[in-house]
């Protein structure tokens, strides 16, 4: 198993996000050249909250890089650095999938934290809100490339999340009451995903991010509103 | 195949489950012909059939669209290749041949349809002058699961794929006939876009 594949499997061992961004219609060779896959992701990646989502590095353009690998119609890259575990794959169909670890699961010794996180499984509020912003910003950028289509589908799954306690990872914000995720996993949107018009996604990706973030918090039992989430997310 | 499709394949220059490259030359080149027949067998026993493109040199480790002369390309006519196929494969294979011109060079494109009812076998055997078994009498050839190459069926995994493909075809034919008779089947026989996307990522995200 390569380093790239090992990281993907490692991410799945704890709480993980599985994010899909794709055109609504299937075309196996929407992107004719496999060599253009990595640059598409590189150009659309979002720098937010101190990290790149998806994780890309110019050195990974090198086909010999340990952090990239490719199949017959896809390219995959992984990052395993300072609790930032990501593995993504993009296909010539335009489908992009990102596996993302939850940072608090992999930080062994949180520095600068006067109040330690509670014992057991935790889920960081601030980081997750940033992740949603990155997902929809990235989806908007990708939609306007050759990988995109007039309608896009964006889905988020968070797996193994049952029992995770929502924690405040922004030291400047007040800590939270006891909110624990009750279900085995989280899906957004729930049920069959409705395609989003490219124009709508490009016009206001943060509106979609706020709606998604608000939905997740409601599953924790946290009574936020789309406006309040949008306000938090405006800080990124 | 449209010129645009050919350009896409030439631009990608990579074999896939449904695309195989072969070097150029006239149909009277026996060794080349047998290799093309083997590729055709692999494609017809493959889901959705496939395309064999002649005129591509892979000796340097990558696909180079070097082409062939117009005279050599013209020897690969529908009739001449159809006759050869009839002698070497069983049951019959449906192929369409056309010549393409790209960057001033000539190529032959053989579009191979997926088998009609049952998988197709090699009727005769052929060993290359170097001793390689290109075709084995009575053998079944398929496209490899892990690599885009034509291989002889040797494993139970490969063998199992063919009957299930044949079954799918019979089911599709059944639905086609019943639909013609006025019966609306429950659901779509062909996978939806969503199912195709989901299938694509199942080894990664699950």
What is the structure about, briefly put?
The complex is a heterodimer of chains A (236) and B (206). With 236 residues, chain A is an alpha+beta fold.
Structure overview:
The complex is a heterodimer of chains A (236) and B (206). Helix content of chain A is 30%, strand content 25%. Chain A has helices spanning 3-11, 37-44, 103-106, 125-143, 198-203, 205-220, 226-233; strands spanning 16-23, 46-48, 51-53, 68-70, 74-81, 84-91, 96-101, 122-124, 151-159, 165-167, 186-188, 196-197. Chain A is globular. By secondary structure, chain B is of the alpha+beta class. Chain B has helices spanning 3-12, 30-44, 70-74, 78-88, 156-180, 193-205; strands spanning 19-22, 50-54, 56-57, 64-65, 89-90, 95-102, 105-112, 121-122, 126-127, 133-135, 141-143, 150-152. In chain B, the strands form 5 sheets. In chain B, strands 1-2-7-6 form a 4-stranded mixed beta sheet, with helices on both faces. A two-stranded antiparallel sheet of chain B has the order 3-4. The longest helix of chain B is centred in the last third of the chain and has 25 residues, at 156-180. The chains are: A alpha+beta (236), B alpha+beta (206). The A-B interface holds A 8, 18, 20, 22, 24-26, 29, 32-34, 72-73, 76, 89, 91, 93, 95, 97, 99, 153, 192 and B 8, 11-12, 14, 16-17, 148, 193-194, 196-197, 200-201, 204-205.
Shape of chain B: globular
Helix content of chain B: 25-40%
Task: Estimate the mean pLDDT confidence of chain A.
Answer: 87
Look at the helices and sheets of chain B and give the structural class: alpha+beta
Instruction: Give the beta-strand count of chain B.
Output: 12
Q: Mind describing the biggest β-sheet of chain B?
A: 4 strands, mixed
Strand adjacency order, main sheet of chain B: 1-2-7-6
Biggest interface: A-B, 22 and 15 residues
The DSSP helix count of chain A reads: 7
Number of strands of chain A: 12
Radius of gyration of chain A: 17 Å
Q: What is the N-to-C succession of helices and strands of chain A? A: HEHEEEEEEHEHEEEEHHH
């Amino acid at each position: 198993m390569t380093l790239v594949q090992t990281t993907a499997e490692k991410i799945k061992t704890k709480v993980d996000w599985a994010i899909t961004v794709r055109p609504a219609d299937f075309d196996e060779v929407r992107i004719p050249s496999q060599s253009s896959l990595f640059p598409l992701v590189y150009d659309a990646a979002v720098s937010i909250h101190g990290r790149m989502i998806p994780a890309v590095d110019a050195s990974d353009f090198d086909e010999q890089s340990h952090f990239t690998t490719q199949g017959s119609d896809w390219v995959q890259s992984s990052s395993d650095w300072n609790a930032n575990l990501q593995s993504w794959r993009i296909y010539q169909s335009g489908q992009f999938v990102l596996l993302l670890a939850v940072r608090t699961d992999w930080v062994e010794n949180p520095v600068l934290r006067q109040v330690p996180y509670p014992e057991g499984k935790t889920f960081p509020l601030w980081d997750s809100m940033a992740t949603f912003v990155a997902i929809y910003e990235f989806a908007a950028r990708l939609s306007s490339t050759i990988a995109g289509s007039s309608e896009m589908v964006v889905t988020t799954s968070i797996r193994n999340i049952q029992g995770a306690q929502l924690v405040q990872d922004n030291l400047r914000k007040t800590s939270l009451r006891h909110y624990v995720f009750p279900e085995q996993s989280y899906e957004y949107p729930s049920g069959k995903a409705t395609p989003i018009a490219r124009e709508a996604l490009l016009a206001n990706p943060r509106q979609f991010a706020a709606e998604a973030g608000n939905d997740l918090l409601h599953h924790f039992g946290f009574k936020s509103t789309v406006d309040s989430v949008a306000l938090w997310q405006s800080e990124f | 195949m449209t010129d645009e499709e050919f350009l896409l394949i030439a631009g990608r220059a990579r074999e896939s489950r449904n695309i195989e490259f072969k070097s150029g030359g006239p149909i009277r080149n026996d060794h080349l012909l047998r290799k093309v027949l083997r590729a055709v067998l692999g494609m017809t026993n493959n889901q959705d059939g496939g395309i064999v493109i002649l005129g591509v040199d892979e000796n340097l480790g990558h696909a180079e669209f070097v082409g062939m002369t117009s005279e050599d390309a013209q020897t690969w006519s529908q009739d001449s290749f159809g006759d050869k196929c009839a002698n070497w494969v069983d049951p019959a294979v449906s192929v369409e041949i056309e010549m393409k011109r790209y960057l001033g060079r000539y190529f032959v494109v053989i579009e191979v349809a997926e088998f009609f009812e049952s998988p197709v076998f090699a009727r005769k055997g052929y060993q290359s002058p170097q001793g390689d078994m290109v075709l084995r009498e009575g053998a079944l050839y398929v496209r490899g699961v892990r690599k885009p190459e034509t291989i002889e069926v040797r494993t139970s995994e490969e063998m199992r794929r063919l009957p299930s493909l044949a079954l799918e075809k019979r089911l599709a034919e059944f639905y086609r006939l019943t639909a013609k008779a006025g019966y609306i089947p429950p659901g779509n026989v062909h996978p939806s876009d969503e199912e195709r996307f989901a299938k694509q990522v199942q080894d990664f995200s699950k």
